[in-house]
Design goal:
Blueprint (H helix, E strand, L loop, with lengths): L5 H6 L2 E11 L2 E4 L6 E8 L2 E5 L2 E6 L3 E5 L5 E4 L6 E10 L6 H5 L4 E4 L7 H12 L5 H21 L8 H6 L3 H10 L7 H8 L3 H12 L3 H18 L4 H7 L5 H12 L3 H11 L2
Length: about 280
């Protein structure tokens, strides 16, 4: 089986920063103002989860609550005894250019019993959270990252993955073509060539790709390439090299494709992106 996450994570990393290990008492709010999401693990106790004035979840058993993107939310717990949480900020490199982030729901909530492959890992994380060992923060951060990857694996194997990239990666044939695009964006990918990799006819491949992913193969490839271009621009790579690595024959061809998708030239986009940080 092809590794469906290797190229995605190789181009766009996922990082975790643990910020809570212990009881939360009363009302605790995250305002969603920072450029990252959160992964919460409820170990003991009960908690209500509120989105503004709406109660979104009742956590009555050990549970996982995942917000891939910045989302305001609050926990309401017993004022005296609280509930025992271990929580981390989660940052998907590339932001909106990251197709994995774009494929995830706004919120995912499930009891820990639905993560049987993570039992040993969760036990290790909870033990580390209680201890005061050297390197504790780094260990917790890495454990959260592994849990997140295991969660992504589970979503790809779900009986009913939603429309989008995860549905495409769950498909036993389409996944081969999607991974090929992820691994080698510089290749001259035609629909015929991708269909051959998937082991399907051109028409069947195009129809099933659109039905599963919600876009045509050509459009998906362009969005993948432009997302990489945005990352490489921010890293300071020269446009000539970027055009080659992203599969465009020239800087002019890259600029046309970039402006078609983003409404700006690559340099204009980079200037605006840098200005937005200040």
């Amino acid at each position: 089986m092809v590794d469906r996450l290797a190229a995605l994570l190789g181009h766009f990393s996922i990082s975790a920063q643990t910020f809570q290990t212990g009881p939360l008492c009363g009302i605790n709010t995250l305002d969603g103002s920072k450029p990252y999401g959160q992964l919460h693990l409820l170990r003991r106790g009960k908690a209500e989860v509120w989105h503004g004035h709406t109660k979104a979840h009742d956590l009555e058993e050990p549970s996982l609550l995942f917000y891939p993107r910045p989302t305001p939310h609050s926990f309401v717990t017993d004022r005296e005894h609280g509930a025992d949480f271990v929580c981390a900020h989660i940052l998907f490199e590339g932001g909106s250019a990251n197709p994995l982030l774009n494929a995830l729901p706004d919120c995912l909530c499930m009891p820990l019993t639905q993560l049987p492959d993570s039992v040993a890992l969760l036990s290790l994380l909870f033990a580390e959270a209680e201890a005061n060992n050297c390197g504790r923060q780094t260990v917790l951060d890495r454990l959260f990252e592994v849990i997140l990857i295991q969660l992504l694996r589970g979503l790809m194997e779900s009986d009913s993955p939603q429309l989008g990239l995860l549905a495409g990666l769950a498909h036993t044939q389409l996944r081969r073509a999607i991974v090929a695009m992820h691994e080698k964006p510089e290749e001259d990918w035609s629909v015929e060539r991708l269909a051959k990799i998937a082991g399907m006819s051109r028409s069947v491949f195009s129809n099933q790709f659109r039905d599963a992913v919600g876009d045509t193969p050509a459009n998906y490839l362009q969005r993948w390439r432009i997302g990489l271009v945005q990352k490489w621009l921010k890293n300071g790579q020269p446009l000539r090299l970027i055009a080659e690595e992203a599969g465009y024959g020239s800087e002019a061809a890259l600029s046309r494709a970039f402006k078609s998708q983003c409404g700006l030239s690559p340099m204009q986009w980079l200037k605006e992106s840098q200005a937005a940080k200040h």
